[in-house]
Amino acid sequence: MSLDIAREFHSKVNSNMDLQSEIRGCRKIEETLEVARNHGYHLTSQDLLAVAEEATKSGDLSDFDLELVSGGSPICCVNCTGPSV
Prior knowledge:
The protein is mainly α. The protein has helices at residues 2-15, 17-24, 29-38, 45-58, 63-70. It has one domain. Helix 1 packs across helix 4. The radius of gyration is 11 Å and the shape is globular. The protein is built from 5 helices and no strands.
C-alpha cells in the first residue's frame, strides 16, 4: 500500500513544476519526506528509495528524475545504507 502511495507521489512530482521546485531545495531525504507530508503523502525513506529503484531499473526516468540523479539527490541514491545520505 505505501509503495502505491509513493508511486502516486512520484507521478505527482513529475507532473507538477511547483512541487519539483520544492524537491530541488531538499538536501536530505527527511526534507523530501516533509515535503511529501505537506502534500498529504505519508511515506518512509524506504518507500521513496523503492520507487527510485523501480524507475532506475525500468529505465523509465523523467527529465526531473534524471536531474535528481545527476545532482546526487538523496532520493535517487538507491544503494545507500540509510535514510540520511
